[in-house]
Amino acid sequence: MGIVLGANQYGKAEVRLVHVDRSTPRHVLTDLNISTHLRGAFDATYLTGDNASVLATDTQKNTVYAFARKFGVDEPEDFAIRLGRHFIESQEPVQGAQIEIDQLPWDRLDDHSFARPGGERRTTSVTFDGDQVWVVSGLTDLVVLKTTGSEFHGFPRDEYTTLPETTDRILATSVTARWRYSSADLAFGEIYPAIRSVLLETFSATHSLALQQTLYAMGRAVLEKFGDVAEVRLSMPNKHHYLADLSPFGLDNPNEVFIAGDRPYGLIEGQVLREEAPDAGSAWQFVPGFA
Amino acid sequence: MGIVLGANQYGKAEVRLVHVDRSTPRHVLTDLNISTHLRGAFDATYLTGDNASVLATDTQKNTVYAFARKFGVDEPEDFAIRLGRHFIESQEPVQGAQIEIDQLPWDRLDDHSFARPGGERRTTSVTFDGDQVWVVSGLTDLVVLKTTGSEFHGFPRDEYTTLPETTDRILATSVTARWRYSSADLAFGEIYPAIRSVLLETFSATHSLALQQTLYAMGRAVLEKFGDVAEVRLSMPNKHHYLADLSPFGLDNPNEVFIAGDRPYGLIEGQVLREEAPDAGSAWQFVPGFA
Amino acid sequence: MGIVLGANQYGKAEVRLVHVDRSTPRHVLTDLNISTHLRGAFDATYLTGDNASVLATDTQKNTVYAFARKFGVDEPEDFAIRLGRHFIESQEPVQGAQIEIDQLPWDRLDDHSFARPGGERRTTSVTFDGDQVWVVSGLTDLVVLKTTGSEFHGFPRDEYTTLPETTDRILATSVTARWRYSSADLAFGEIYPAIRSVLLETFSATHSLALQQTLYAMGRAVLEKFGDVAEVRLSMPNKHHYLADLSPFGLDNPNEVFIAGDRPYGLIEGQVLREEAPDAGSAWQFVPGFA
Amino acid sequence: MGIVLGANQYGKAEVRLVHVDRSTPRHVLTDLNISTHLRGAFDATYLTGDNASVLATDTQKNTVYAFARKFGVDEPEDFAIRLGRHFIESQEPVQGAQIEIDQLPWDRLDDHSFARPGGERRTTSVTFDGDQVWVVSGLTDLVVLKTTGSEFHGFPRDEYTTLPETTDRILATSVTARWRYSSADLAFGEIYPAIRSVLLETFSATHSLALQQTLYAMGRAVLEKFGDVAEVRLSMPNKHHYLADLSPFGLDNPNEVFIAGDRPYGLIEGQVLREEAPDAGSAWQFVPGFA
């Protein structure tokens, strides 16, 4: 029974690119963290150390910075598509690629000063398989909380169940959402904040009977409003807020004082999609951390 | 030559308190990370394991949650003062205390839904030494950047100096600022955002010849505008943005494409104070990470 | 075009279990971080918030602790198999599961004292699909370095290539390895340290012409020596050590002084498998971060 | 009332130096994280941006790498002393300095291959004030645990006390220890592992009635055995392991199944010193995180 090389990819991870557009006095700042992954006819380097086909990861990094100068930095999706096409078209052994970009947000203070709000990041993962391309965009670390409008009851009770039922609890989560577009030719810069708003509004407006229900409602709302989105995948940890038991101190606690827990946490992951969505191909194959 | 116990303190670190004020339909959410440190006549526990004077750290934690219910959670400074006084007044062996509180910010989405912007935190450290109390408040992780308006030249060149002079560079830092109030009886909730604004405005408005100059300008501006602040201490890492060398690719780079570096980083720390400020006592003794 | 729920799972992540076996004075300490994920007939909770089928994640956590008492904690693989079978057999709606366990290592100091070496962790991910079960074990954060015996040359040079060729460089990486066993009934506690040794020995013994070659050699060596392993997947970041340019100071640098870089880093990921390995089914579907 | 500049320092933080001694085929690997802080006559740069006295932090970094080549890298303390003296002696405005070095440990696999155990780090902080020098060395992140031999009872009970007394609990902590030597001319490489062993042995051998007692015993043991150590400061978080309550499941729990908690945690900090130790001067002024 022989031993063979299976699926593989290689590239440069976390290339930190900051771009300043100075074409007007009101500078535009773009802050990206870029990872490139190449796939193709690279067996020789694994089997014998022959690197004749291996575009160095250092070269991939150089290409990122050179392209930023040559073409500017527009939307992360467009920049990723340009990079991926370049690697596939210019290097014969490269047959596929995945370009991942996280964008770090900055708030404007004046024409050339900025403050970074931290936390949340816009993400994109563009996958190439020969001529085909899939764009999966999203956001990560969007932390949201509701102080009411969340219940959890009616679940089965087995011999290990101690959780009381509740009709009013804090619901908090850190949303990671990724959605697959049905096209690679969209106004990504306009659609992103619109989807983000729908996610926030739906979290806020949904009276929750389970975090699963909130997750599905958020995914569904995006699909209902954005015809160019084929599917949405959401990963939502249940960041538990435990009601403090103040009875030993002769105090009640009418849903007012909570202990924010670190670990463990519930973790809900799900996919919402159109019944006749175009095939996902390998779009999700290398996207980390998703059902 | 004998061996003796020197300075010591003990307490409970990182008590995560989330408080919801439901007195109106527009809920008020307060999210705090609280650490208590007690000092006093605790030699016996160190020397013999006699715990008769040692208020358990678990009890300190319980007190935090009980006080949140009994008194509500107002400004972090006021909550810290109330906690510290309680420990000193109710426990004979407790002669001093330091109560540290970090506040995690939340942005309101609607009456009872919130999103957390991440990054920056408001901080306070209240120190008690018998009847005396000092309030040191501040903020941490305030990340700011200027795309122009920053120079660095005129520095000495020794045999190890290779850095070129520049009249236009990116200046970026993550501000940790702590300021000591000259009173423990102030409208802390009003003064905090005002000081934060002055720090941001001064960073933005200062044409910088050195990060040191920016640091001093920021501290001075706070002292000039806020008579109740006795001194300001600032720690500002220079988050280097290296101009990418694109000349190997036949490209110029007119301050447009930058490599954001992780390590190493410059680190500038300084204190700005009033000449006749009241004595700091032990206010800074246990405040981490400061010159 | 209808909108439907797709793949989904839910569970409790990062349940921190520490177990002490006191059956002899020489205590045995086991420190685990356990995540449970359940799959099955859970559509109702997503669509309507009906939780009649949803075994609470709190109950899953309780089960972990109760099982540790009832059955003890043996090898992580065996504990995961027992947990997974319980959820599938006792809860009708549960049709599949993934149980992930990371083990934190402890070194013994004496009969009941231990020190934790940090860093590296043993991992397992056991996947159930109805009656079938797959065991994927591995390790993560195994940081290794060679000061010589590593070359990199012969790679193509395009217009963005500046990297010089080298016949002697530092090679450093943080190995994440996962291997799929062809059986769920093995002496996991014996095979784990043996595979770990083979990985280390092969890293050490392989004269490297590319990190890809080292990766393949490590995977192949495991398959050659362990008939019960069907495939190995490896993710190996190239933790770059840049030779410091000391020429401005009139100094040479014969591979002696290096700058350890943080970001970016090369990232090599690959799979080595037996040609006639049993089918992987959904064993890898939810394993994070792998090609 | 005037506003003035107070205490200040600046430098380069986290210079990552890896040094390979190839003088024999059995390579010696040294992995350091170095921060330099300079103090002196630097008012002009803060007040007016005049940098004529400001040795660039980039130059400080270059000096680290050049010195590693010129002098090799011996013990961290010796390397720090050499660096600090250089800055003070070669730059007239520099009147004081603090050089901090963390050493990352590596275990040898063969003549030129190594594995990094992670976790624990050896540290040193060398402070210069004109001609004077103080050496404060230590370790951080030394995680230790005892499964028995730890009690906690006899503490006062106020209205907020709910903690039960115990005569057998898990005691776990992550030790940060720093000790001040009474000389800068010692065989630091020999004394370090000896002190580390005494800390571990004392943790292990002490029957603990309070973590405070264990802390003091550890500090005292170092002073008793090492005449060149003037004082020891220890920071020891109490990493709580909560006994799981299994009674709802009809199970007892005879100190066997524990929940490892993240936050909050007790935090014990204390100093043990010789009565007639030489003055500490500014040795501790800028050492982070210590009472």
TrEMBL record, chains A, B, C, D:
Transmembrane segments: none annotated. Pathway: Purine metabolism; urate degradation; (S)-allantoin from urate: step 1/3. It catalyses: urate + O2 + H2O = 5-hydroxyisourate + H2O2. Coiled coil: none annotated. Keywords: Oxidoreductase, Purine metabolism. Pfam families: Uricase. It is an enzyme of class 1 (oxidoreductase). InterPro entries: Uricase, Uricase_CS. Belongs to the uricase family. This is Uricase. It comes from Kineosporia mesophila.
